[in-house]
């Protein structure tokens, strides 16, 4: 079976009250449409066709993929009209699956189950029982329980409004039958639209059985119409991610205060305290402990690392046994080899720090190569930028940098060198020696403080 997935994404999304097309709004930092595309791709379709309309150029610019065929629906005349626009693109695909670009959380397994259930017929739909079905198309079944039609809420009779089984919008068709059925569509209904759902009646008239499947979870078929629904789905999605992490052996202080906006992998026995946000691609080793309120993005974190509260880590690699924070900021290009200590109010950028080195307080170390066993005192600054170019600071193994030192790059501090506190180092400091630049301390004997002159 070759499959074409058609994703309907032409709607305006008025209720988002936004200048941006609805399908570009993000759930877990990923556009709604991207969620649908990622799920679609897991079904190995021969074609992926996205029907776009409102704000289409922006959608096309933001969503990547050579495998996507974009079809414009200039006027939104209904879901049936939308599918009519793609008929010319379905050649060679036996089966068509229709998804909505604003329904982000459908599970691939539900879709596979659905396609299997509909494999021996030419039409199928995913339905769902709801306590409050208002607004949805109702599934009308005959005395034998076979689906005979879908009636839209606005067109439904009082008796039909009592039906609790609704159309989720996810439908599948034998592609070869679509053109004929769509050609027969009219728009003589309450909304004056061409309803894709009217194909059910057409298929039944042709003697077809309508296959139905239910999702494993209600949220899988929930659409986003406004920001309230978007936030609800975000929490559900994060709950699923939290549960998956716990099942994989990670302890979470509170699964309701845990956010993954990307891919997170973790070894055994990690602990994540409240309000930690993971973004991009993050990999934790075993026994990693992360304190509250940390943001960790695109990072590789080794075994037995401890990250204390309120630390911010972006595009960094932290070797095993290291301790970070509280209040540390590791910027892109930071690489801690192992057992490094980076303490409060320390900022690192494009810096490699060797084994066992310590930068414990209030320092900026950027564009630097720091050896192993180095101690960098409080308030040390690598002055890496001369206003035009960035320069590198090299600090040898076992060097000791006294507090409040400015290292004016490019500069090199030798192995085992000691820099006296308060120095401004502009020239290379030799191995094993004490180097300092400091005005000599003097005492003025007999000096007295000025006193206030009476008015
Ligand atoms: C549709 C179904 C309804 C179902 C409901 C589930 C029809 C006629 N009705 O109703 O049975 O219960 O979804 O949410 O299909 N779209 C286009 N072009 C259009 C119209 C819509 O691309 O011309 C897209 C929208 O962007 C959206 C999807 O199709 O992603 C559904 O459109 P929407 O207007 O939300 O359909 P409903 O009226 O809610
Ligand atoms: Ca809708």
Word description of this protein:
It is a single chain. The chain has 455 residues and is α/β, with parallel strands linked by helices. It has two domains: 3-221, Spore Coat Polysaccharide Biosynthesis Protein SpsA, Chain A, CATH 3.90.550; 227-435, Hexapeptide repeat proteins (UDP N-Acetylglucosamine Acyltransferase, domain 1, 3 Solenoid), CATH 2.160.10. The termini are far apart. It binds uridine-diphosphate-N-acetylglucosamine and calcium ion. Calcium ion binds at residues 223, 225.
Short description:
With 455 residues, the protein is an alpha/beta fold.
List key phrases describing it:
455 residues; alpha/beta; Spore Coat Polysaccharide Biosynthesis Protein SpsA, Chain A; UDP N-Acetylglucosamine Acyltransferase, domain 1; eleven-stranded parallel β-sheet; ten-stranded parallel β-sheet; 8 helices; elongated; binds uridine-diphosphate-N-acetylglucosamine; binds calcium ion
List the helices and strands and how they pair.
Elements: E1 3-9, E2 26-27, E3 30-31, H1 32-41, E4 47-52, H2 56-62, E5 68-72, H3 79-84, E6 95-100, H4 108-117, E7 123-129, E8 138-141, E9 147-151, H5 158-161, E10 165-174, H6 175-183, H7 199-205, E11 210-213, H8 227-247, E12 250-252, E13 258-266, E14 270-272, E15 276-284, E16 289-290, E17 295-301, E18 306-307, E19 312-318, E20 323-324, E21 328-330, E22 334-336, E23 341-344, E24 346-353, E25 358-361, E26 364-370, E27 375-376, E28 381-383, E29 393-395, E30 400-401, E31 406-408, E32 411-413, E33 418-419, E34 424-425, E35 434-435
Bound molecules: uridine-diphosphate-N-acetylglucosamine (UD1) and calcium ion.
